[in-house]
Amino acid sequence: MKNHIVSAFRLTLVMLAVVGIYLIIVYGGSKVLPTQGNAEIINYKGQKFYANIGQEFKSEKYFHGRPSSVNYNAAGSGGSNKGPSNEDYLETVQKRIDTLKLQNPEMGSTHVPVELVTASGSGLDPDISEEGALYQAKRIAHMRSLSVEQINNLIKNQTEKPFLGLFGPSKVNVLKLNIALDQLK
């Protein structure tokens, strides 16, 4: 029994060292990132917004982000846990597609970007694809009396390229895009 206790104690020390080194590497790596591992806070019109958390935009004058299965409540992050063969889920997605097509009638039968009708695993994804933003460009241009070219240029300027040009897709932060849209003259 004494041998087992000594072995367990040694294993505990080894695991503490391994986990400790891992935590130091992760923490140190986060400090290299632009936000240094902290939330990106944007102050706009006297309000504080977190750019890392999806926001809800209902007005037709704004770009809409991904749907949220938690009603954009960061305290209750989570997905719907319904798979692609679940009839309720398919009905919900079809309703979202129908609503999106009603909001953007000028797009006709154009392919609807998947992120505009499906929630992310966290329910709080702040980004959409460039394609998702371009899908909404004509509606925004019409609602704001701007040219589609102006909106497309804004989307292009707000598009974040993959990390190091390799890791992840291009994406557009919907909050930042809508703030830039408000600032567009």
TrEMBL record:
Provide the leader sequence positions.
Answer: none
Q: Which residues cross the membrane?
A: 7-28
- Which GO cellular component does the record give, naming just one? plasma membrane
Q: Where in the cell is it found?
A: Cell membrane
Record keyword ATP-binding present: yes
Provide the membrane topology annotation.
Single-pass membrane protein
Gene Ontology MF term list: ATP binding; hydrolase activity; P-type potassium transmembrane transporter activity
| Primary site of residence | membrane
State the UniProt keywords alphabetically.
Answer: ATP-binding, Cell membrane, Hydrolase, Ion transport, Membrane, Nucleotide-binding, Potassium, Potassium transport, Transmembrane, Transmembrane helix, Transport
Instruction: Please name the Pfam families in this protein's record.
Output: KdpC
How it assembles, according to the record, is: The system is composed of three essential subunits: KdpA, KdpB and KdpC.
Protein family membership: Belongs to the KdpC family.
Described by its record, this protein's role is as follows:
Part of the high-affinity ATP-driven potassium transport (or Kdp) system, which catalyzes the hydrolysis of ATP coupled with the electrogenic transport of potassium into the cytoplasm. This subunit acts as a catalytic chaperone that increases the ATP-binding affinity of the ATP-hydrolyzing subunit KdpB by the formation of a transient KdpB/KdpC/ATP ternary complex.
Please report the name of this protein according to its UniProt entry: Potassium-transporting ATPase KdpC subunit
Question: What is the originating organism of this protein?
Answer: Chryseobacterium nakagawai
Write the gene name.
kdpC
